[in-house]
Amino acid sequence: MSKIVMKFGGTSVGSMELIGNVAKRVQLEKEKGHDIVVVVSAMGKTTDDLAEMASKITNNPTKREMDMLLATGEQVTMSLLAIQLNSLGVETLSLTGWQAGIVTDEVHRNSKIKQLDGQKINEHLMANRVVIVAGFQGMSELGEITTLGRGGSDTTAVAIAAAIGADICDIYTDVDGVYTSDPRYVSHARKLEQLEYDEMLELAHLGAGVLHPRAVEFAKNYKIPLRVRSSYEETEGTILKEEVDVENNLVVRGVAFESDIVRLTIEYTVPFNGSLASIFTTLANNHIDVDIIVQSIVEGMKPTVSFSIKKESLSEAIHVLEKKKQNLGFTFADFEVGLAKVSIVGSGMVSNPGVAAQMFDRLSKENIPVKMVSTSEIKVSVVVPQGNMIQAANALHDEFDLAIN
Ligand code: ADP
Ligand code: ASP
Ligand code: MG
Fold first, then answer.
1. What pLDDT is recorded for position 159?
2. How many angstroms separate the alpha carbon of residue 36 from the centre of ligand 2?
3. Which of 40, 153, 172, 216 has most ligand 2 atoms within 8 Å of CB, for mutation?
4. How many CB atoms lie within 10 A of CB 197?
5. Which domain holds residue 287?
6. pLDDT tens string 148-181
7. Pocket-testing residue among 7, 8, 41, 48, ligand 2, by greatest number of atoms within 8 A of Cβ
8. What is the pLDDT of residue 331?
9. 170 and 311 share one domain
């Protein structure tokens, strides 16, 4: 008998019929004698629809009220699924994030789980109940409802798995595993049987939306076996582990991409005096994630620094920096919208120089301009025009032989 966390994403619970299928799947696992916690997302595109409703009122709703609004989506699913399971004769109860004991920080719309006491869930499991928990939501220490960022139900699932000491956390979704790249856009993407936490972490951070990055972080830190599986068919899926056997000695294991990137360039009007730190502290204090940073100091020219952020943060970034620009001694030189980031990831890159060169060579053959570059031990990312994103992803997938079995 095992303790299992089963997480079902939005498309998997998108209709009453699908909720019925999920209930049957949960019932099947329960009948095998396992202890089951189910984590659910909002039905279908509910979260988008709720955000859309708010945007009809204003472009700038308070983050607190957005959390109040968005947290309702998951509650609809959890109660419908519980009603369904109870009517099948499986004793079940649903819990909101805060009822399940999920305590987060105070950052609305992108909060982090600080504490999760698994005792309450464990008590229900001991009483032989299936427990359903609403994904994506928690409560701050001040008693405010918070949400964990888009895609955050994955993180709820893995955090619960860690807190209750689950044997495995299964993420059921609309693909049957993690692929070498998003199968919706990269035609020869191939399903991976196994993947290292670190590789998945990079892929998730770099735009592979199949798993929320913090879910992978939790799984890695607490050594939770994490599996991505299809919610429609009975296949094995992809298992994430500390280390996996290297398939075909492939150096690159995956290609990820992300659209809606903006590049801002700042020019210093006064000699450099440490204001680089002040600029990025200002952005960090306002919870604006900065990605690639390129500083250019050439003799005889004013120093500049370019950095990339997500498009959704642009107006806030400009707003907070504008207020400081006199003090910090810079002007905005340029900003470019309509960019995307394409990345190659693989832990074998550490010992294989020349991967970046091969990447740039292929992009140049494809006539794709590279606007920014960033590398780490296990990835190379380039910023390219958004119109070239899918072409670049497919070309790099081909260049590094990822379609080969
Ligand atoms: P859910 O609603 O179940 O959380 P998501 O839409 O968040 O589902 O995640 C599943 C989607 O992730 C897939 O439909 C696929 O388009 C996308 N995706 C992006 N990168 C990958 C990848 N490397 N492997 C598999 N799916 C990916
Ligand atoms: N419902 C939330 C979203 O759409 C959380 C999730 O599905 O993981 O982002
Ligand atoms: Mg998701």
1. 98
2. 21
3. 153
4. 20
5. 255-399
6. 999 999 999 999 999 999 999 999 999 999 999 9
7. 41
8. 82
9. no
Q: How many residues does the chain have?
A: 405
Which of 126, 152, 174 delimits the end of a domain?
174
Same domain, 289 and 154: no
Rounded mean pLDDT of 370-384?
A: 94
Return the structure tokens found at 337: 């919208």
Bridge partners (DSSP) listed for residue 191: 179
How many distinct structural domains can be found in the chain?
2
Mean pLDDT for the chain? 93
Average pLDDT over residues 239-247: 80
Buried b (16+ CB within 10 A) or exposed e, 353-382: eebeebbeebbeeeebebbbebeeebbbbb
CB atoms within 10 A of CB 87: 10
User: pTM (2 decimals)?
Assistant: 0.93
Query: For position 110, which CATH number holds?
Result: 3.40.1160.10
Which CATH number do you get for residue 356? 3.30.2130.10
Q: Are 28 and 166 members of one domain? A: yes
- Are the C-beta atoms of residues 259 and 336 closer than 8 Å to each other? no
Q: pLDDT-based confidence at 268, cuts 50/70/90?
A: confident
Hey, is 17 helix, strand or coil?
A: helix
124 and 262 together in one domain: no
Residues 385-402 have pLDDT tens digits of 999 999 999 999 999 999
Per the structure block, which two tokens stand in for 169?
């956390």
With respect to residue 28, please indicate whether it lies within any of the assigned structural domains: yes
Rounded mean pLDDT, 247-259: 86
356 located within any domain = yes
Q: Whose CA is nearest to atom 1 of ligand 1?
A: 9
User: Would you say residue 309 lies in a domain?
Assistant: yes
Q: How far is the CA of 374 from the centre of ligand 1 (A)?
A: 24
Any atom of ligand 2 within 6 Å of the Cβ of 282: no
Of 159, 174, 189, the domain-final residue: 174
Residues with a CB atom less than 6 Å from ligand 1: 9-12, 41, 151, 173-175, 178-179, 181-184, 208-210, 254
Q: For residue 138, what are its two tokens? A: 């928690």
Residue 248 has pLDDT above 70, yes or no: no
* CB-ligand 2 contact for 110 (6 Å cutoff): no
Longest dimension (CA), the chain: 78
